């Protein structure tokens, strides 16, 4: 099952939606805790579903169950925390939430996990797909856009 991930910072709308369309994304799963970001107007909750449908023919769902808590994010972003501490805290959170039991692997096929970070290597969207892949026996073929 093909799954992609994408971040919306450090890009413009043309590039962002172009990558999604080229990848053939059928559904964007927004894994931000708050989907009203001021970082990019095109990624706000009020507008993003419209843009995705009109420009990419894709659906949109906000899934805060796959997002860090406010406390975990604050410790990492605002207090300039350590990535390894964030990683361990977030992995403990999604383990406690048993996210692998909350979703079916098939629901991720053709989907793209969305977060704000431009690069996936220090973003929780990568942790989510890696965790789920481990729980689901490597069934997800993950590509970062």
From TrEMBL:
InterPro entries: DUF488. Pfam families: DUF488. It comes from the Bacteria. This is Uncharacterized protein (DUF488 family). It comes from Pseudorhizobium flavum. The lineage of its organism: Bacteria, Pseudomonadati, Pseudomonadota, Alphaproteobacteria, Hyphomicrobiales.
């Amino acid at each position: 099952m093909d799954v992609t991930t994408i971040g919306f910072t450090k890009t413009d709308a043309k590039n962002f939606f172009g990558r999604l369309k080229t990848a053939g994304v059928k559904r964007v799963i927004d894994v931000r805790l708050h989907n009203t970001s001021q970082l990019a107007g095109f990624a706000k909750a009020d507008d993003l579903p419209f843009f995705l449908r009109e420009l990419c023919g894709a659906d949109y769902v906000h899934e805060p169950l796959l997002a860090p808590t406010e406390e975990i994010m604050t410790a990492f972003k605002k207090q300039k925390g350590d990535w390894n501490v964030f990683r361990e805290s977030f992995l403990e959170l999604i383990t406690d939430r048993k996210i692998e039991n909350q979703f079916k692997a098939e629901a991720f096929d053709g989907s793209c996990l969305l977060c704000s970070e431009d690069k996936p290597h220090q973003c929780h969207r990568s942790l989510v797909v890696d965790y789920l892949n481990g729980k689901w026996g490597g069934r997800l073929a993950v590509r970062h856009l």
